[in-house]
Amino acid sequence: VLVGRAMGKLQSKISFHTTKYRADGSVEETGPLRAVQQHGPAHTDAVTSVAALKPDLCVSGGSDKSVAVCSWRSGAALRRFIGHEREVTKVTSAPDSNRVFSASRDKTVMMWELHRTSGPSQHFPGHDLVVTGLAVSPDASQLCTGSRDNTMCKWDTETGECLGRAAISRNLVTHLCWVPGEPYVIQTSEDKTIRIWDSRELQVAHTFPAKQHIQTCCDVSQDGRYCLSSSSGSAGEGGEATLWDLRQTRNRVREYKGHFQTTTSCVFLPRGPALAPSIATSSYDSTVKVWDQHTGGRG
Fold first, then answer.
1. Rounded to 5, what percent of the chain is helix, strand, coil?
2. Whole-structure pTM over 0.70, yes or no?
3. What DSSP element (H or E) covers 36?
4. CA 20 to CA 194: how far, in whole Å?
5. DSSP string spanning 243-295?
6. Which helix (H) or strand (E) holds 38?
7. Do 171 and 154 contact (CB within 8 A), yes or no?
8. What pLDDT digit, counting tens, does each position of 102-136 carry?
9. What residues pair up with 103 in beta bridges, in sequence order?
10. How many C-beta neighbours within 10 Å does residue 74 have?
């Protein structure tokens, strides 16, 4: 799931080989459009983050300081969580969990129970600046957070206790993601690097070679073999996504170039029985691009 510049309305367009979605509503496609669904607004201001919650549910955060749980089937906003004092920057959840986590410009992280009617079930204060990275362990027992204050923190989700804190100079965290089935967390930074953290001791286990531009986002494949990162850029310089090997060489595998401005998000797409492994990227150039993971070809 990607969020580009579409704010206010949740819109899904599904096609066989569509490669670009534009902010003005036009679609460049190489195959027939199968379905178009448009739903009412989930937020009253900009949508800043969205993540899968269950097969039919997603969670989103917004500049309106709220967290919303929506059904993509009906378009209905099923739950709305209010508690943050400033814009929500990131949302996430553990697979098939009833727990939702949100980070905010108010320097805190909150945990919400899907079926709980009152406020947050846990509160994680401790950062000195906006929280910009959020990743939960597969069993939802631990949480890692990162901030523009150059720190990473690890938390016990049951007690809210901070289990560890690590600081690296100039490490302005932009995104975090947990490696499935492993104790490792991937982190991107404004210092142009991608780090692998060992969550057990909250120490850096590996740092990939620095890129030429700020790294804005990261994602990990479901098998835990690869990670993606995306780069800032402008006027055709930068803006690429990069595939990294996590298990063997821990080197760069491939780059995906084609965006003309900052690439804001990158994800591995679910693999169907007859589909080649694919990734998707979104950019400030108003496009979403789908790439063949192995060849770097589009569409």
1. 0, 50, 50
2. yes
3. strand 33-39
4. 27
5. EEESSSS-SEEEEE---SS-EEEEEEPPPPTT---EEEEEETTS-EEEEETTT
6. strand 33-39
7. no
8. 999 999 999 999 888 779 999 999 999 999 999 99
9. 90, 109
10. 10
